[in-house]
């Protein structure tokens, strides 16, 4: 499969068309941004790790009954995926308080919830991705009720799978963000990525952060944390 033309360049990925109208190629970059694009940097090797980790997890999720956009890994940092239109919702699942949950609601990080929570942000750069509820999402025609129900079901399935898989690697899954897409025939599939850029991972014993918070909060050893997650999960 070959790249034909660049369709899009985002903060962390480029997307190319292919000869197949239903398939695009994503190329993961080492660029990192945080705080609505205000903080910019490079995390060397991140693109390759995020690409391979996403593919590793999506292939297992597919087997566990969550349809994904994954088609074929092409190289260290490039993957062929189904062409989808992204549902403009960031779907965030949390098991433990952290990040915006802690700051928005005035609680400390690290409170373990009795059951996972789910929330949506409206993916809109001009509006800075505001929190949105399902009624608003339906009113804005971002998704239908049926699509939202399916997205919630898949998101909790992903949480169950990821929590268990990571715990076996000595990692606590704190929270994560998913994006879903719609294929040409209207099927909802898991899209985007599952990586230390989009999840919070804490070492199960020490609580050490093994994710993008090391970059956001200038904690040092950012590359080391991504490599450690790749080693624990995929043995490489
Ligand atoms: N997240 C993400 N992209 C975003 C916002 C959040 O991947 O644009 C992820 C983030 O890495 C974390 C989870 O979603 O694992 C919850 O993030 P939160 O809402 O606490 O916001 P943050 O503090 O990360 O900005």
From TrEMBL:
EC number(s) per entry: 6.3.2.6
Pathway entry: Purine metabolism; IMP biosynthesis via de novo pathway; 5-amino-1-(5-phospho-D-ribosyl)imidazole-4-carboxamide from 5-amino-1-(5-phospho-D-ribosyl)imidazole-4-carboxylate: step 1/2
Keywords: ATP-binding, Ligase, Nucleotide-binding, Purine biosynthesis
Example of a GO biological process term: cobalamin biosynthetic process
HAMAP family cross-referenced by the UniProt entry: SAICAR_synth
Family stated for the protein in its record: Belongs to the SAICAR synthetase family.
Record's protein name: Phosphoribosylaminoimidazole-succinocarboxamide synthase
Gene name per UniProt: purC
């Amino acid at each position: 499969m070959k790249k034909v033309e660049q369709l899009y360049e985002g903060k962390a990925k480029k997307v190319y068309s292919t000869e197949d109208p239903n398939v695009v190629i994503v190329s993961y970059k080492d660029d990192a941004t945080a705080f609505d694009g205000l903080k910019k940097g490079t995390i060397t090797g991140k693109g390759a790790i995020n690409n391979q980790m996403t593919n590793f997890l999506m292939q297992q999720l597919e087997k566990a009954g969550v349809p994904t956009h994954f088609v074929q890994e092409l190289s260290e940092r490039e993957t062929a995926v189904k062409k989808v239109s992204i549902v403009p919702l960031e779907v965030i699942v949390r098991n433990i308080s952290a990040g915006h949950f802690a700051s928005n609601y005035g609680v400390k990080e690290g409170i373990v919830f009795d059951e996972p929570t789910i929330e949506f942000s409206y993916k809109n750069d001009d509006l800075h991705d505001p929190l949105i509820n399902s009624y608003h999402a339906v009113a804005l025609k971002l998704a239908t009720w049926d699509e939202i129900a399916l997205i919630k079901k898949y998101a909790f399935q992903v949480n169950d799978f990821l929590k268990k898989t990571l715990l076996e690697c000595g990692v606590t899954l704190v929270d994560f963000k998913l994006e879903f897409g719609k294929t040409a025939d209207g099927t909802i599939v898991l899209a985007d990525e599952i990586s230390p850029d989009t999840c919070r991972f804490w070492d199960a014993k020490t609580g050490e952060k093994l994710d993008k918070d090391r970059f956001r909060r200038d904690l040092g050893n950012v590359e080391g944390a991504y490599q450690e997650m790749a080693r624990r999960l995929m043995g490489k």
